[in-house]
Structure formats: structure tokens, C-alpha cells
Amino acid sequence: GVKSVIQDDRVSIVTGLGMSSAIESVLPVLNAAKVPGLMNQATVRGVTYPFQPWMFTGNCNYSDQGDVALGYLMTRLKLKDLKGKVVGVAPINSASGNEFQENLKALVAKYGGTTVVQTIPATIVSADTQMIEFQDKKIDMLLIGTAANQGVAVLKSLAKFGIDIPVSGHFGVANENVYRSVPYEVAKNFVAVNCVTPPTLAKGTAGKLAIETGKKYGYPESEITQANWSLGWMNAQLMVEALKNAKGDYSGTAVRKGFEMIKNLDTGGLSPKVTLNSKCHMVIRQVRPYTYSYKTDTLQPVGTYEQWAKWSTNAYAAPGTCGKKSGAK
What is residue 230's three-state secondary structure? Predict the structure, then answer.
């Protein structure tokens, strides 16, 4: 576990943190050892609110993702509010899924709409039962908060029952394999959000280097061209920059300060530029939607990160840290 890695291996950084249900047990270990953690997935509220001095979140959080996903659907449907609308939410059965649905329930209510939730088990093969319930409730749109496999099950069942509605979801389903695995009649309605750019779309040399390095070490093309590869590469860029800033002092305190010295880091288009400080450890705070091109077999961005920033409420930023909370658009 994290404790043994810190005590036995004397590490300066702990990364690869991604289990939402386990994070409450990890934070006290990092705080006691004074070793920084870099969380790559499952960026739940507790890792930034209240402010956690020894944790950095290397991915956008569930609140920002839900904000922009709902904002995209409202934009697509040309809605200024959700009065009279029923919004379906399909979260995975986990701590992260629960947060995703609770955030959206509050946001939908703010816009005057009604939410219907159908939880998706991690081991699900068919989501027919959940989609029948959504069909009975006559939902107008759907947001998916699962990993790719569960998202595929949801989309296949939507197609099976002819539920023709716009669908979005968080980064877990913003994946080329999801589109490849579901019928076109549902894929055409589906646009998920992410906070990193697939390496094939990144402008500059970073995307090319990320792909070439993956090929060099034998990773299949299906892995090195997707957004998750960009996320891992960008997190590695952060760690390299932090270690450089530490100038040979690899104590936990020096490495933490190394992260906090990162200013306007250009990741080569793999993500928005990164700025951290002693009170803001949220690496990415911008999100945008992605559709899919069957011609090029790649995700394609819908607009810019800046364009969609107006939908973010910044709800996971603790007071006095990474900017102020805002109302959604």
C-alpha cells in the first residue's frame, strides 16, 4: 500500500492514485509522511475541499466535468433552462459515481429540471433494466458517469430500445473504443467531455513524442493514441518539472514546493497550460466536449477549453485556493 511504499522505498512522490473509495485512507498517510501525492483519476471533492497540502489532482474533477457535460447538452438542445425537462444520470456504483450524480442533481434542480438516476454496477453486461426505467420516465437527455465498459453497455441498451436522445458523460467514457463498440444510431447522439487532448490531435512536438515513445516500448496503437495516454504523459511532465524545481533536494517538502513553483507549463497541447501555487493544487480546471470522427478513427474536440469554461461552477475549489466559485452560465 501507500504507507509501505513511502516507508520502505523512501519515495519522493506517490502517483497512480485513482480509487475514489480509498482516497480517505490515503490522505492521512500522505499528510503524516509529508510526501506529495499526484492523483490521476477519481478526483473526488475530498482531495481538494478542504484544501489538502500534500495532494495534487492531475485530472479535472467530477464537478467540472458534470458542469460542462450538462452545458453541452443544453447548448445542443438550445435550452436556457431545464424547466419541464427530465435529465437521466447513469453513474457507476462507487464513491465517484455517487458524487457525479449528486453534483448533477443539484445543478439540474438549479436550472429547474428533474433528475432520474439509474446506478450502473461495475460488473454490468446489459443495462436493459436501467434503460427501460429511463424510457418509462421519458428522459430528455442522459449523462453517463462510468468507465468505458459500463458506458458501452448503457449505449447499446439505448440503441436496443430506440431511445433517441442526446447523451454526454465524463472522461471515463470519452474514449474511441466506446464509439467503436456501439451502433452508429446511438453513437451519433453521444458527446463526452475530457480535460486532455488525444496525442494525435496535440499541436507541437509533445503529442508526436508521446506516440513515438509508446511505440518504442511496444505499446499498441490503440493505447498510445487515446486521451488516457495524454493524461499519463502530462502527469509525467508535471513530475519532471517538479523534480527539476527541487534542484537535487528530493525530500517530500522540496518536491511539494517544486510542484507549487510550476507556472504556465506548456504541455504541448496535451492539456490546458498548468499553473500551481502553495494554495492551488488543482492541475487542470478546464474541460471540453469531444465527438468522434469515423473517417480518422479519432476523438474530435467541440470548441476550445476557454469556450466551455463559462459552464464550470468550480465547486471543488476550497475557499482561498483555486479561484472563486461561480454560478453556471
Answer: helix
